[in-house]
Amino acid sequence: MKKIIIEKYPKIIEYLLVAYLGVILIEVNLIDESYKKHVILGTLIFCTISIRAKKWDLKQMFFGFENFWLAFAWYFGATVVGIISLYGYSLYFHKEWGASESTLLEYSFGIVIVQEILFRVFLWKLGQEIFGERSIANIILNTVAFASMHIVYEGFWHNYLWLLMLLAGVMFAVLYYFFPKLYFIIPVHVILNASAVHFGIFH
Predict the structure, then answer these.
(1) 30 secondary structure, DSSP code
(2) Looking at the 3D structure of the chain, how many domains does it have?
(3) What pTM, to 2 d.p., does this model score?
(4) Domain membership of residue 6 as a residue range
(5) Helix, strand, coil proportions of the chain in percent (round to 5)?
């Protein structure tokens, strides 16, 4: 691990910069919280274009259909478990259901696409460069980065929302580790975000 840290130090710094620059700017009040989505998106665009133009395997992420039905079964099962978990969380903490269509669309599509490009495309590939193609360390780093990025959202430290985000991060990272297909993980993320908004977990 020490050797990895020394040799991959620039890439680790890059990873942390991409994952947390926007979050840090918001948390230290240099940027108003209402602009959090714009800042995180801007960080993604800046890092993608300015720091490194990565060569992503679009065939693997979008067009490969090997093990299609096995992957579908796992993603479908994870979606069902996720919805049930969100429903139970909402009931336990007495969340108020319902959301406007604009809020639902914003959280369900706009944020999801940004997050998936950031975590499952850019940072996933960068994590593979740091730890290796099939390293469990990449799952752990991706999970922690995904969960902790949500600190910019209201109530992250209350009602165990941080734990819910950590579990979601584990689920997404493990699914993508075995079946790296954006055409599966984006719809799952959209459905779960929409459910979370409807159940009053996100505002």
Answers:
(1) S
(2) 1
(3) 0.81
(4) 2-198
(5) 80, 0, 20
